[in-house]
Please model this.
Amino acid sequence: MMRPAVFLDRDGTLIEERGYLDRLDLLAVLPWTPDAIRLLNRAGFATVVVTNQSAIGRGLIDEAFLHRLHAAFDTHLAAGGARMDAYYFCPHHPDADLERYRRVCRCRKPGPGMIERACRELQLDPRRSVMVGDRWLDVACGRAAGTRSVLVRTGHGAHEAEHPPEGARADAILNNLMEAVGWILRTCSR
Model:
């Protein structure tokens, strides 16, 4: 049977929004993140980061650095008894400086490609899953992939919640990831 998942934007949702994160010492995990992820782990949800990383295409970081950054984030989670099941990232951008990353792709949010790939590779059920992020493009990504979507007011979320694009609709708009997890545990079947 396919598992439900919570797909999570990274910057502004799990960690502080810092723009292009190009040094490990800039990683600042939001205080509720380990507890929130641990609750999802215990409830049987797969936890999957889906993050646009155009900094790779712009030549600001490389994929090896991104993997080191995610390993450092995993260390923070493990200290709180939590774990991330997988990381998916899109290095592409139509205006990328590095030609091999310069393209329009399905994996760059709001496209659903990262969620679709995770569902195939990890046997996840999008209909029983939720996308959580601090931007309307995260909400649109989840909707395009067939998940429920939650906008959180951390990171860019407070501004985004005040200025929704025409037709944008989240299943919930909440203050932070911990509130989103409470909503998910009350609302979504596992």
Q: What stands out?
A: The helical segments are 33-42, 54-57, 63-79, 113-122, 136-145, 157-162, 177-187. The longest strand covers residues 46-52.
